[in-house]
Amino acid sequence: MAIWFRYLRTDWFARRRPVLREMPFVLSAPDHGRMVVTAANVLAQGRGVDTGMSVADARVMIPGLEVLDDQPERSAKLLKGIAEWCIRYSPAVATDPPEGLMLDITGCAHLWGGERPYLAEILLRLNHFGYNTRGAIADTIGSAWAIARFGQDTHIIETGQQSTALLLLPPPALRLEVPMAERLEKLGLRQVSDFISMPRVALRRRFGPQLLLRLNQALGYEQEMIQPVQPIEPYQERLPCLEPIVTATGIEIALQRLLDSLCHRLQAEEKGLRMALFKCYRTDGKIEQISIGTTRASHNTRHLFKLLEINIPSIEPAPGIELFILEASKVEPLSPMQEKLWEHTSGLDKIGLSELLDRIGGKIGGDSIHRYLPDEHYWPERSFKPALSVTETAEPGWKNDRLRPVQLLARPELVEVTAPVPDYPPMLFRYKGTLHKIVRADGPERVEPEWWLHQGEHRDYYCVEDDEGKRYWLFRSGHYDAAKRDQWFIHGFFA
Q1: Among 472, 392, 397, residue whose Cα is nearest residue 440
Q2: Closest Cα partner for 322 from 254, 232, 276, 249?
Q3: Confidence category of residue 355, pLDDT binned at 50, 70, 90
Q4: Backbone dihedral angles phi then psi of residue 423, each to the nearest 5 degrees
Q5: pLDDT of residue 87
Q6: Cα(8)–Cα(12) distance, rounded to whole angstroms?
Q7: HSE (side-chain half, CA atoms, 13 Å) at 447
Q8: What share of the chain is helix, strand, coil (3-state, %, to 5)?
Q9: How many CA atoms lie within 13 A of 101 on its CB side?
Q10: Strand, helix or coil at 205?
Q11: Strands (E) located in 70-177
Q12: Which domains does the chain have, with CATH numbers?
């Protein structure tokens, strides 16, 4: 489907200022020291003002003409925004600068009762927004483009009939460059029928490869593809609605249907999703969406529904939702044999644990759940690293030959210590203004610095217990020095 916005930029201005709909106005931009008309609305064109004319001449023709400043990049932004809105009608929508869109509607028209009501629905909605549009449906991009801009009677070309539909159209309908179209006009070839039957060798020799390329593309002899504004996810399910949905119950029903379809497909292909995006297209053009992530690949419909259901209250249906889309943006292999093995295992390999972590992450945020693996470093604060997933493993494993605190401070904190010399454990230490009397101690355990990372003193660690039964992990930096007061630190707390 090709859609042509006949007055794209001027219609946009009229949407923002409705008073402009009843008066002629133009858009202008500087060109070689003078102001030139870059776009004119239908009323201005009806009185002889058109693109390329100087603003001074236009004001002579229409006294009191409204002149607004134009911006070169506005057309591209407008087309992109409208193309994203049109995704509710087709997953593949591309911009066709400077004033058009292209939709791949394969398999879409039957959802609206056929091609004719489908085209009428889209054009009616765009016209309701204030855009003067024309559209056409054909087998090829070139023929749809031509009929949308130059066709007269019909806007839907039957399969295989594009050659007949192009015969009476002028050469510019083939998307030819202006010099090429003018050259054909001068030679008396004013319609496609005047040269479509000529030998291809003669056309190439006389006019070059461009004419043949455009002609073959329009007839379907050469393939032509569009570049959608949003890449089509390979795992995507769509659910259009006959009537706008405005209730949470309706949204839940739509979500359940989409999950059933998507998970059935994933299960058949032995895959599971890791990330999913649920989009709700409202009738006013806005998009509401929620997303989830899982710790393991999953195609468990019930589990995935619970994860998305938590966020449904954040969706604002407003005037109503007319289209639901569920995308699995990240998919991983998941064989039935693996899932069966997991059911008989425990710990990190159990599916139930992964689903529990998913539900907790959905409520408090996935960033609040962390898992760590051992890392090969001497200093305690560097001896671990964040795990990339629940199933990630590391070699070597955790070292259990030395006692380590349950809570480790991110950065050692300075404490005041009273200790015998030279290597006896401390007797007293003061931390955050509180004095602790040590009744038991174990150590020292020396940890050398990692000279390949930085230069520094070694550490002598002590496990100490105060008179209240609380245990701490202290260390002295470097050898004992009576002249140094900032030599002792606290690094962790035992259970």
Answers
A1: 472
A2: 254
A3: confident
A4: -125, 25
A5: 92
A6: 6
A7: 17
A8: 35, 30, 35
A9: 30
A10: helix
A11: 92-96, 100-104, 133-136
A12: 236-361 (3.30.1490.100), 407-493 (no CATH)
